[in-house]
Amino acid sequence: MEKRNTFSGKLGFVLAAAGSAVGLGNLWRFPYLAAKYGGGIFLLIYILLAVTFGTVLMITEIAIGRKTQLSPLAAFKSLSPRWGFVGKLATFVPVLIFPYYCLIGGWVTKYTASMIFDSQAAASDTFFSDYVSGTGEPLIWFGVFLAVTTLVVIFGVNKGIEKLSRILMPLLLVITVVLSVYVVTRPGSKEGVKYYLMPNFSQLSFKTFLAALGQLFYSMSLAMGIMITYGSYFSKEENIGKSARQIEIFDTVIAFLAGLMIIPAVFEFSGGDKEALSTGPSLMFVTLPKVFASMPGGKYIGALFFFLVLFAALTSSVSILEAIVAGFIDTFKSRRSATTLAVAVYGLILGAVCSFGFGIWSNVKILGFDILDFLDFLSNSVFLPLVGMLTCVVVGFVIKPDSIIEEMELNGPFKMKTYYKVMVKWIAPVFIFAILISGILQSFGILKI
Ligand code: TRP
After folding, report:
1. Which residues does ligand 1 sit against, CB inside 6 Å?
2. Coil, strand or helix: which one is 257?
3. Using 50, 70 and 90 to split pLDDT, how confident is the model at 220?
């Protein structure tokens, strides 16, 4: 077997993993979920889950990757042939996510162009709904985004993108800080800031837990085999715990700021009523152009902002497609370019179906969800928690936590041994299971609390 490349130093690993983690999940998905599920209470639960289950899973996945030096499919099989199916499940999730991720990437592409050419129009109330309900135009932008992702994966120009992301990701952080400060200091933002930062316990429900848990896995690219893959390239000399913490902090800070920039603006520009807060996937696209329209020079800042979101989305979509392609090549020994093209065509078809769900097929509902929302629910609220739970079970009972601890201790002592053991074996799997079941039952109205 050829020797695996390793990242050049810890920073290389952290940046690459953060490039995959930071994407639409932070900027688009987190704010609309937080708005919908009660603001402060969602934020609180998210952070609690991130420092507990998030940390445990992040460490576990990176350690599995570095220990086995294998892709997730092969890694789970090598840990235990009986539990090899967990690797398959983990690789399947990106297959569900890829089509609609690129569709939203297409929305961002469209908005970047609109900000440059006609930012005033983008701030109007009907701009978003007119756009997504169209049949042809959303497909064109979606096709462009998908094509760029596909070309990057086929020609393997990831290196160039990685270099670029060293400049653009920090810039994204700077601009989200600037925008959130601008929004928070506006006169009409008080109510919104309060809604976002003060937990209101009356809004607490199992659905909130499930949404926060799914979002955590999605945003940090956990339970999809991604961190296992990155871990397999992680140098034996570096400390896993520290790197995991840095990725988590960076990812969470960006999500937090995105919420701080969008949610108060919903109160100021769209009224803070229940309906405005629960618009879902359209929230960022409806709210931000209004913020930019209210700013001096907002046209330029808006264009730059959407461009940076576009870039963050691209680095993530590239790693999603990579994950799928690598899985197929591992299993079927197929050719790289042919496999990539085939996955792209599949993505194009299913993504188009999602897009029509906002227009000509808007009356189609699956279990009460729009088509895109259904795929999103299935992948994030069902499969991710399931894979996360199974990963804990495999580590806790099959290969035993000690083998992960041993890998962690290659570079200095691992201080939270007992905590880690209790977490992976008992607390994480039991709680994830409980959240999964009660959250699903509640989403379908079977359980009412
Ligand atoms: N974490 C990415 C984001 O926040 C999205 C994502 C979902 C992802 N699944 C993935 C990234 C798989 C890489 C691989 O937008």
Report:
1. 20-21, 23-26, 94, 97, 218-219, 221, 224, 226, 316, 319-320, 323
2. helix
3. very high
